[in-house]
Amino acid sequence: MNWTWFHKLASPPHAYRIAARLIPWFACPAGILIAAGLYGGLVLAPADYQQGDGFRIVYVHAPSAWLSMQVYATMAAAAAVGLIWRIKLAHAVAAASAPIGASFTFLALVTGAVWGKPMWGTWWVWDARLTSELILLFLYAGVMALRASIEDRDRADRAAAVLAIVGVVNLPIIHYSVYWWNTLHQPATLTKLGKPSMAGDMLWPLLAMLLGFTLYYAAVLLVRLRGEILRRERDAAWLGTEVAR
Amino acid sequence: MAATSAFQAACHAYRRDLVLAFRHWGQVAQPLVFFVIVATLFPLALGPQLGELREIAGGALWVAALLASLLGVELLFRADHADGTLEQMLLCGQPLAVLVLAKGLAHWTVCGLPLVLLSPLVAAGLGAPTAANGTLVASLALGTGILSALGAIGSALTLGLRRGSLLLGLLVLPLAMPALIFGARAVDLAVHGDSARGPLLLLSAMLVLAMTLAPPAVAAALRISAE
Amino acid sequence: MLAGVSLTLAAAQCLHVLGANGSGKTTLLRVITGLVTPEQGRVEWNGQPTAANRDAWHASFSYLAHSDGLKPELTARENLAFEVGLRRPLVEGETEEALREVGLAAERDQPAGFLSAGQRRRLAVARVLLAAVPLWILDEPFTNLDAAGTTLVAALIGRHLDAGGAAIIAAHQPPAIPGHAPWRLELA
């Protein structure tokens, strides 16, 4: 199999140019889908009979939570590729993804709190999913802090990669433990930020938001990736001709 | 010329670390004292009623053990890194993961085991009945092992960094949360007279996982930090 | 940092790496040992790339770094026994022999932390000697050594080369090794 296309992709100048061309292809559909999803969820969908209009926050909360985990998995996968095959671009992808994932996690936490307030009167509950998201935020913070604390870029990339992989292995364990801990200490009826069972009209905006968020992540990743490449290749020769274009 | 087998090298490394620890009594005792101090914070913060303290004894003991282990894990690689012996260990031709496991075991023998043995005393101070001691010791024995393994990963990643200790906490504590959940639960069950078999088995599983996966991760992290 | 460096070393040969401070002597040695992985290029031992079997490569050389690699709390003898014992089982009396060779027989049971800088350097050289490996990679071995110590270490290197070993030495001054003229590699 001819791997030259892969090696081409992994070279920073090519990645830089290809990323620039791909961004609109992700950003536009993302914008459309998110707009459609928001309209569908906030305006069109009928109010839930149990939770009233308060449940609508799920259209932002659920996709954020889903993305927060997807991005972590992607970051860990990119880190593993960078570590095993020593491809610098993979490390750049991991570095670019971390703050995006952390933002999604933070958004999930905030929307979770906003959801909780009208439901149970408090801004925070130690619900299984929210607690999981909080721990995930700590894991993101750890990876970003480790990368920032090491001056040598190569060492920083590889140390953060090891940490990301250790984190991704731990993630299922943390999830299960927190879920078990939550069911143990609280009666089942009380706090569950469960999605109300969804009929068709309520479901499609959710899927639209999910897909929209994913494409949004891809678009923002490409933008940040270009920034990462610029930062890492600061002294490279190809950059001079590129910028002159 | 015959070479030392990996197992013999591991025994060697284990013995060396024990000898070094015994010549440094003061350093080794610090995490232990820290454990007692943190445990003492709870009665001071929450009130002296043993009845009330009993309710939080499991959690308090485990949090204290967690923080003390975090402090103790510094001893694992820091000194070796500073005087250059860690580098020599990377170059001695023996599988690094095996040596790391040996060092980890030595560290646990010196830091974890005393903590485990001291815990019934501290637990009594928090109102736990003596009947709970068996489960307490078992859970902490497993738990300090898990914490040593996770701490080793964090320590290897933050080797030589300024304010590495603070970063170490940030990295290791989230990973240790599952162990905390089950360990504290086990002690809690025992304090109330119930069987803690479930959580203890889960802790054992986590320990096995940690002992299998941590040494290669630590070895990789050490090689990265040595560059 | 380093670019376009290429070298080959055979048995009984000695290579002297020299260059100004910061020219990359230590980095080159660390790349050879495998502590640092080069972005391009590779290291080969007996025709095989060292990256393929790292442990076997590590067993073939002994590295003397800038730092002595000694535990200050352990005695001179214990330091040797523990460090070399990781590589190969030591026979009774070998550590004493090695200490005698570097002139530290009297300091056998002194903790390494109480030795002078020159004595610690000689102890580190004793560790290299005791490892009994074909290749010695020495980074500034003559640091902190007085004239007698320098002659001693140079003589030991000479003996190692006579026995068919090889050595790579990074040093500011050309090492005066009896009976051998080292190849020179100058880093810009």
Fold and architecture overview:
The complex is a heterotrimer of chains A (245), B (227) and C (188). Chain A is mostly helical. Helices cover 80% and strands 0% of the residues of chain A. Chain A is globular, with a radius of gyration of 20 Å. Chain A starts with a helix and ends with a helix. Helix content of chain B is 84%, strand content 0%. Chain B is built from nine helices and no strands. Chain C is of the alpha/beta class and 188 residues long. Chain C has one domain: 3-Layer(aba) Sandwich (Rossmann fold). In chain C, helix 3 runs parallel beside helix 5 and helix 5 packs parallel to helix 6. Chains B and C meet through helix 1 and helix 5 of B and helix 2 and helix 3 of C.
List the helices and strands and how they pair.
The complex is a heterotrimer of chains A (245), B (227) and C (188).
Chain A: H1 4-9, H2 12-44, H3 58-85, H4 88-120, H5 128-149, H6 153-185, H7 200-232, H8 237-244
Chain B: H1 6-22, H2 25-46, H3 50-72, H4 74-83, H5 85-90, H6 96-125, H7 133-157, H8 164-191, H9 197-226
Helix pairs in contact in B: 1-6, 2-3, 2-6, 3-6, 3-7, 3-8, 4-7, 6-7, 6-9, 7-8, 7-9, 8-9
Chain C: E1 14-19, H1 25-33, E2 44-45, E3 48-49, H2 54-58, E4 61-64, H3 76-85, H4 94-101, H5 117-131, E5 135-139, H6 147-162, E6 166-170, E7 183-187
Parallel strand pairs in C: 1-6, 1-7, 4-5, 5-6
Antiparallel strand pairs in C: 2-3
Helix pairs in contact in C: 3-5, 4-5, 5-6
